[in-house]
Amino acid sequence: xxxISPDDIAPPEIDETPQKGExxxxxxTRIAREKVATVSSAPEDIVLCADTTVFMGRRILxxxxxxxxxxxxxxxxxxxxxxxxxxxxxxxxxxVIERAVESRxxxxxxxxxxxxxxxATDDWRGKAGGYAxxxxxxxxxxxxxxxxxxxxxxxxxxxxxxxxxxxxxxxxQE
Length: 174
What we know:
Low-confidence stretches: none
Strand content: 15-25%
Mean pLDDT: 95
Number of domains: 1
Number of helices: 5
Largest sheet: 5 strands, antiparallel
Strand order of the largest sheet: 2-1-3-4-5
Number of strands: 5
């Protein structure tokens, strides 16, 4: 959306398991921070990492392990409001900028047929809470309060601000 293309994509290998009693905001911020610290880079490189989590109350709904867990998540979210937090961490040299954006989302009540059809798309794989608002599940979301790009996985305004603060010319003209 910003017209920025990365020079490299290097997914960090970290353990994304929540710690016992960890609050969702602390969890997602920790994961983004660990990701950005893990990626090796030259001192002049800018590294950008993010993580998104879906939660209800203090219950973190991570990436479902299988279709059974994805279905359980969808049934839990069906007809209810939940929250989505995306945290980003941007690093250049030793300087790290962190941001976290929280949004509220309402999922419509889902029928058994809608759940089955969505699960059959496999769009739930690798998605926090078992759905992606930018995919077919977007039809299940009648209302949000907050940042649509953050719900998708990267808050645009905060990302642009962090990159600019690290010296990246976000608004340069070609």
